[in-house]
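In the design runs reported in the main text, the only information available to the sequence generator was the tokenized backbone. The following block is the verbatim input for one such run; it is reproduced so that readers can re-run the procedure and compare outputs position by position.
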């Protein structure tokens, strides 16, 4: 592997300082240890609502300002640069797309003509034509989300699948979708986690459950979390609960006010690892719908690395996943399964769970990405 790999432009579907980091930010930071990386923040594929959060975000972008995230993260690598594009967030309208194509064409993206566009968004507004090589990394079935221009996204994706040098999927559901769209050589890179960080946290542990992540109505079945606490098990909620329409779900308020629920909000990664390690069972209470058919939760390996049992609904992406402590249960059994799995594990069980998570690390995944990019220069 050469030491100087080509410049990489990461086209994300999330802002860099998002409250909860996912694969986009982790991969960009990892690549920036080996190459010059420009991280282009989200084009805002979902049409904004009249909520305060959406209006503030639109105003910031219109003024060319970044911010609004609540992430407390390690320092940004010197070779990583963040760009906040100005676009019209109504991508379903042809006139808006024409204007956006002009706006995106003006973005200052040094090195793209000799480097790699690594896009998590199917809608690129022509950036793929500026790049020497293109990687399409699909981590969600974006076209199934509410308030997105599904037809425009699918059209853009079909074009991208024709021209991309490499196509990567984060789950079996996403991979099946991409193959159905006509691309046969899809690489399956299931989501991974910062397992070293979560395995290294050493704090006293007691029987209680944790859910780490956004309380997003399109993903999370809040009723399952209520079932857990109604059965007498303590629950820690780590992450935001006022975005993506969560405030319109009355059950969220009931959950947050429950006497057995503790909310810790957004935490720096090291503090989150300590909170998770102090629990005994990690929850993945996801609804089963068109969107979650393509979701592989990063938190599965975070929980396992911390030594927790994991109770999840039977997501398609996890049905072939075997790991000690991972249980896939139907919604009717979710609360009972969480209680049953909440005992404090002995050292042998802890070691088995951590070993199962060890190979699913960002260290290994970034090495895969570096090798892929480096291979373009071979």
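Verbatim output:
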């Amino acid at each position: 592997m050469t030491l100087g790999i080509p410049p990489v432009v990461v086209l994300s579907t999330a802002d860099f300082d998002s409250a909860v980091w996912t694969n986009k930010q982790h991969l960009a930071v990892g690549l920036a240890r080996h190459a010059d990386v420009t991280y282009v923040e989200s084009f805002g594929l979902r049409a904004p609502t009249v909520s305060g959060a959406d209006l503030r975000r639109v105003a910031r972008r219109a003024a060319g300002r970044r911010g609004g995230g609540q992430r407390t993260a390690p320092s940004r690598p010197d070779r990583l640069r963040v760009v906040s594009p100005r676009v019209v967030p109504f991508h379903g309208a042809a006139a808006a797309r024409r204007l956006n194509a002009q706006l995106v064409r003006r973005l200052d993206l040094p090195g793209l003509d000799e480097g790699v566009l690594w896009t998590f968004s199917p809608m690129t507004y022509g950036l793929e034509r500026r790049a020497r090589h293109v990687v399409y990394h699909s981590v969600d079935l974006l076209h199934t989300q509410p308030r997105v221009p599904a037809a425009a996204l699918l059209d853009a994706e079909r074009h991208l699948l024709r021209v991309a040098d490499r196509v990567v999927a984060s789950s079996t559901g996403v991979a099946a979708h991409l193959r159905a769209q006509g691309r046969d050589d899809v690489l399956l890179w299931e989501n991974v986690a910062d397992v070293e960080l979560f395995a290294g946290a050493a704090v006293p542990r007691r029987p209680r459950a944790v859910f780490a992540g956004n309380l997003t109505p399109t993903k999370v079945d809040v009723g399952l979390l209520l079932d857990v606490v109604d059965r007498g098990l303590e629950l820690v909620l780590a992450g935001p609960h006022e975005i993506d329409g969560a405030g319109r779900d009355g059950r969220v308020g009931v959950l947050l006010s429950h006497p057995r629920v503790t909310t810790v909000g957004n935490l720096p990664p090291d503090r989150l690892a300590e909170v998770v390690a102090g629990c005994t069972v990690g929850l993945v209470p996801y609804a089963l719908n068109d969107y979650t058919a393509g979701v592989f939760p990063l938190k599965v390996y975070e929980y396992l690395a911390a030594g927790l049992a994991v109770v999840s609904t039977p997501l398609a992406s996890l049905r072939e996943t075997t790991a000690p402590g991972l249980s896939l249960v139907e919604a009717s059994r979710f609360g009972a399964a969480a209680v049953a799995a909440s005992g404090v594990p002995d050292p042998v069980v802890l070691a088995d769970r951590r070993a199962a998570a060890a190979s699913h690390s960002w260290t290994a995944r970034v090495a895969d990405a570096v090798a892929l990019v480096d291979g373009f220069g071979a």
